[in-house]
Design the sequence.
């Protein structure tokens, strides 16, 4: 059920250029990786402008093509940003809004601004998510792998390499952690979803290239709702697919106006926000199939 569309093409408040990753805070404010405008924009569910972070650049607090955002509720609310073309993850406290580099490129940093894991080098990190205990999960798209950090930013785990085999990835684009200690990764170039545990063991995977339910064409982002269902934006098929945690298809939905669905976020009232990178807007759907 398509409720409404917010945003539109532009550089102004409440407008977007190539919006990608999305996340919601506890109040229902929507954080948008407004990649073409090199900023993170915050809007309410009606599309009214609330706040923004960042401008184009390489200094701390500046972004170059940011493609994902994630909010950590476990501690003081933290905002994580996949600062993709700067090859790093930045984060800030939502109260003081001062950014720090969590991991990635040292370009343009002062030592005191870099108090987490400087050793990891990213290549176009495209997705970031927060685990149940505050772990930070990153898809390192250009290196075809994912990296798991503890809440203090210390690297715990790295998995993946380039290819089509079970343990390999081809341009992974996003990931999400569930409350039970699993991580679901969008292996976009291989048109599949992969489920890992937090020890780095591959538990399950599903999907091939195609257009029938359970198949994908360039899946991009993933989120999980309060019931444990997984929502995947199936960009090339212009739809969103919904799965159980074991990969069984529950439903698919879309709208004739949905051109290139990429980012996705689900509020606790089952409102689903989908960023349309081609239309430069965000479509809002209400899911009504609940048991």
Sequence:
């Amino acid at each position: 059920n398509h409720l409404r569309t917010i945003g539109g093409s532009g550089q102004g408040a409440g407008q977007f250029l190539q919006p990608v990753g999305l996340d919601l805070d506890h109040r229902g404010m929507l954080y948008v990786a407004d990649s073409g405008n090199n900023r993170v924009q915050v809007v309410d569910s009606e599309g009214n402008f609330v706040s923004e972070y960042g401008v184009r650049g390489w200094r701390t607090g500046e972004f170059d093509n940011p493609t994902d955002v994630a909010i950590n509720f476990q501690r003081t609310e933290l905002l994580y940003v996949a600062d993709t073309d700067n090859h790093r993850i930045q984060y800030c406290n939502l109260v003081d809004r001062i950014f720090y580099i969590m991991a990635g490129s040292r370009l343009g940093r002062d030592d005191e601004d870099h108090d987490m894991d400087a050793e990891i080098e990213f290549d176009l990190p495209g997705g970031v998510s927060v685990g149940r205990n505050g772990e930070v999960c990153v898809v390192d798209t250009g290196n075809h792998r994912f990296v798991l950090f503890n809440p203090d930013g210390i690297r715990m785990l790295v998995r993946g390499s380039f290819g089509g085999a079970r343990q390999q990835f081809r341009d992974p684009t996003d990931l999400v952690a569930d409350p039970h200690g699993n991580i679901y990764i969008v292996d976009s170039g291989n048109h599949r979803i992969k489920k890992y545990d937090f020890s780095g063991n591959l538990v399950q995977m599903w999907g091939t290239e195609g257009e029938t339910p359970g198949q994908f064409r360039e899946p991009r982002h993933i989120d999980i709702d309060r019931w444990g269902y997984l929502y995947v934006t199936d960009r090339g098929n212009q739809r969103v697919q919904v799965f159980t945690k074991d990969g069984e298809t529950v439903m698919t939905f879309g709208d004739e106006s949905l051109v290139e669905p990429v980012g996705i976020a689900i509020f606790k009232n089952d409102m689903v926000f989908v960023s349309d990178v081609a239309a430069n807007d965000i479509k809002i759907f209400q899911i009504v199939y609940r048991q």
